[in-house]
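Input/output pair, single chain:
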Amino acid sequence: MIKHQFNPGLIQVYTGNGKGKTTAALGLALRALGNGFTVFMGQFLKGQSYGELQSVKRFRRRFVIEQFGTPNFVAKNKINETDRRLAVAGLQRLAQVIAGGTYDLVILDELNVALDFSLIPLAEVLKLLQQKPAHVEIVCTGRHAPPELLQLADLVTEMKEIKHYYRRGIAARTGIEK
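Output:
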């Protein structure tokens, strides 16, 4: 039984070229967990091991992360059928999770990138979000959020890169970016 049905579930989008979209979503998840909420995070285009996968094990069934990608980096110009199949299966799984209404907060991590790469249909995503249960909070992350999603959202935050150490050749670091 959902404890927090008195909260209106809104739609948030974290987008832009700056670092921190997934991190911000995880921060919100941590706040939600601290208030007794349940959280589900579906990660498009990700199949690698990240620190958050280890951390959430401590929350047992209150915070679930499922990945809908391979361990390989996916480039827009090198999409293969496996990438597309996993993204479509991920969208179907998220549709079940959202419609089920069991989770108070559902994070669609890298959804915007999956849309930008044409791995999943925008019309299906918009329909899914428009039909969500009233109490479910949704967060969509990733670069290049489409205008239609921005219009539907209740909150849009753009992460803007001003300076990034990646440009100096510093790769993703364990515990910080992964």
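Residues 85 and 129 are 21 Å apart (CA to CA). The domain at 11-168 is CATH 3.40.50.300 (Rossmann fold).
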